[in-house]
Amino acid sequence: MTDIIMGILEEGLTYAIMALGVYLTYRILNFPDLSVDGTFPLGGAVTAVLLQAGANPLLTLPVSFFAGAAAGMLTGLIHIKLRVRDLLSGIIMMTALYSLNLRIAGRANVPVFSRETIFDNAFLDKWVPAGVQPFLAVLFLFLIGMVMKRLLDWYLGTKSGFLLRAAGDNEALITSLAKDKGTVKIIGLSLSNAFVALSGCLYCQKSGFFEISTGTGTMVIGLASVIIGMKLFQKRTSVKATTAVIFGSIVYKTCVAAAISLGMAASDLKLITAVLFLLILAVSSGRKGKVTANA
Amino acid sequence: MLELRGIQKHYYPGTAHELCLFDHFDFTVGDQEFVTVVGSNGSGKTSLLNMICGSIPVDLGQIFLRGKDITAMPEHRRLKFIGRVFQNPAMGTCSGMTLLENLSLADNKGKPFGLKKGIDAKRISRYREALRELNLGLEENLDIPVGALSGGQRQALALLMSTMTPIDFLILDEHTAALDPGTAERIMELTDKIVKEKGITTIMVTHNLRYAVEYGTRLVMMHQGKVVMDRSDREKEQLKIDDILDKFNEISMGYAKEQNLQKY
Asked: Total domain count for chain A?
């Protein structure tokens, strides 16, 4: 039982960082960004290659973060400079990233079991008592998740963050404030995909391999987490939206784990993902909400 | 001073619906003038505002603001010197953000939007003071989202926000048209007060002839992309609503005649 709970928490906390990224584009910027399906495995591919090359596992975190930011920026540039519709810009980026990720990783599946990761390395083996070892991953993921959540909260409270929030709400106001709304969107997309790639990096290190297909359905999982979180805490204004999203991710992963324990095969995972998301949409559209209106 | 020189603007160029709205159009607004613009639908009032702000490009001609050619300047850079209030109160504010956040955004116009705190605590009392002058009780509600305000309250806030930082020009695009008569009246009085206090050069497009006559220092009537009536200062003061209505009728009759001739 403890194993199952730890597994859910690990997965939930890993994907929570991705969900924060999706929250940023979908809820705040009002931009349905599908490039996350490519940037999640991008983080994994970059991480796998670095670990294979024997790099310090800690280095993979900032490298993935910035790789994701660069990809997000490209999506933004496609949308703004080439005037491609938001949804299509994401699809173009996602498609291109599939091949790009294969090129980076070299093949569709790269194991990193045998390598040192941030969760499993000689330093931790030496200094952390064996009894605590099984909880390390959850502890680390919780800490990284908190740092990222705080970072996002802080950013959304800055002048630049205000502008980002305004851009999703009323583009005309950005122009009235003598700012280029395109630049604001590009910043938002970069930040969002940086979060998503970081999440992919953590997922790769935790699961012990890079796998190209992990990206499929990232957007759906992220959206499901965001919607669950928002629904759970919609009456509690004291709970920050970012906190709600993290809880949403854990609840979502609990649902998936429950479905699998009810006898679904692991290969049914994407089906479970899709059906769960559909259920969430159907249930939450009973009471009208902004997300469902857009979804 | 704002100057439009030899402006040409075609809509749907190269199609069967091609429409030439402005042809060699010249228009000048002097410093501290408060111009009210009237005219029927399709006369080019809103197009004029959009060309000044850069929301739509001109085909030919030049636009000068304080002697500087701004014809090629993108909209968001022009709006550094221009404040604009739209007909729809939702356009000038952010519904999901609080009053305080909205005012902080507006207060930062022209400055960099970096990683400093979004709300400067030292400025809050100033915002509260500015809201108190609106006389709508908003100063007690700094932390509620703007989406919860009424249309009139939002428009008052939009007006305040667009004139918070120093601007050369204020553009009012039928900004009282979506409000009930009482509220429209209050927003008009407020507009006049702000324009006079700050001495901002202003262009106001309106369908309310009484406002056009009562407020401002100059009245312009437009028809088919041309200025057909232009009265300033003393001439404007003596102008009555009936004079404008007469002119309207004269134009629309001429227009009807023209249309009939084309038919036969």
From this structure: 1
Residues B145, B96: contact at Cβ < 8 Å? yes
Dihedral of CA atoms A232, A233, A236, A240 in degrees, nearest 10, equals 160
Pairing of strands B19-29, B2-11: antiparallel
> Rounded to whole angstroms, how far apart are CA atoms B62 and B20?
17
Please indicate if any CB of chain A lies within 8 Å of the CB of B101.
yes
Which candidate in A176, A185, A230, A294 is best for mutational testing of the B interface (most B CBs within 10 A)? Answer: A176
- Ranges of chain A whose pLDDT falls below 50: 288-295
Residue A78's domain is classified under what CATH number? Answer: 1.10.3470
Which domain range does residue A102 map to?
2-294
ipTM of the complex: 0.89
Contact of B106 with chain A, judged by CB distance below 8 Å, is answered with yes
Judged by a CB distance cut-off of 8 A, whether residue B126 touches chain A is no
The residues near A183 (Cβ < 8 Å, ≥ 6 apart) are A80
Is B79 in contact with A177 (Cβ distance < 8 A)? yes
Using the Cα atoms of residue B76, residue B78, residue B81 and residue B82 in order, give the sign of their dihedral.
negative
Short-list A11, A22, A10, A7, CA closest to A245 = A22
pLDDT per position as a tens digit, B242-264:
888 888 888 877 666 666 655 55
Residue type, A92: I
Quickly list H helices, chain A: 2-22, 36-52, 57-81, 86-105, 122-127, 133-156, 159-169, 171-176, 181-207, 218-232, 241-261, 269-284, 290-294
Residue A152 neighbours by CB under 8 Å, 6+ apart: A20, A24, A195, A242
Question: E strand or H helix at B162, and its extent?
Answer: helix B151-162
**Token output for B18:** 């091609």
Residues B56 and B59: their CA atoms lie apart, in Å, by: 10
Tell me the two tokens of residue A60.
Answer: 């993979």
Return the number of CB contacts < 8 Å for A and B. 82
Cα angle for residues A202, A206, A210 (degrees, 5° grid): 75
Select the residue of B76, B108, B114 nearest A180 (Cβ to Cβ): B76
- What predicted TM-score, i.e. pTM, was given to this entire model? 0.91
> pLDDT tens digit string along B17-76?
888 889 999 999 999 999 999 998 888 899 999 999 999 999 999 999 988 999 999 999
pLDDT surpasses 70 at B219: yes
